[in-house]
Amino acid sequence: MSVPQPWTAWFDATRAGAPHCFAQLATVGPDGARCRTLAVRERHGPELWFTTDQRSEKVIELQRQTPQDAHPHAEACWYDLTSRTQWRFRGPVRFLLPEQHPEDCQRLWEKLNDADRARFHGPPPGSLHQTGLPKPGDGIAEDFSILVLRAEHVKVLELADLPHRHWYYPGEGRVAPTRLMP
């Protein structure tokens, strides 16, 4: 690829050819940087949508990051083994809750398998293990939410060919990317 297309189209094409799209989301907790793996569920414009439990440490860490009137920030990284391309997305994070966004939450809730839905009805993530599997509830769990990362800074590193190519998309990718040293 000599000059890449807008990152959103490139990402969608890469994701369509990938068997999975699990991104690592980095936050900062009281004990330092933390990273965890989340499935990218959807993309809307420059936003990546993940599902999460409002009781999780990542949510608590993000909410502690900034005053209530500002959005916390995070970075997500995805490496696609098929294309040998690394994607890094950085920007503000917000949460879509079932009470305020019932249609979006219902749509993503229905995409989860039974075991994933049941976990939202069980003990909080990171709590001590309990025997027995949680039972799924009748509807969306009250702690279910959509974590939305608005990608204001996107870096793409192509590793399939030599020389490697490294691209930076500022803002929402409307401006042509800048080529960086790999």
From TrEMBL:
Taxonomic path: Bacteria, Pseudomonadati, Pseudomonadota, Gammaproteobacteria, Oceanospirillales
Protein name: Pyridoxamine 5'-phosphate oxidase Alr4036 family FMN-binding domain-containing protein
Domain Pyridoxamine 5'-phosphate oxidase Alr4036 family FMN-binding: residue ranges: 6-94
PANTHER family: AGL049CP, PYRIDOXAMINE 5'-PHOSPHATE OXIDASE ALR4036 FAMILY FMN-BINDING DOMAIN-CONTAINING PROTEIN
Alphabetized InterPro entries for the sequence: Pyridox_Oxase_Alr4036_FMN-bd, Split_barrel_FMN-bd
Domain of life: Bacteria
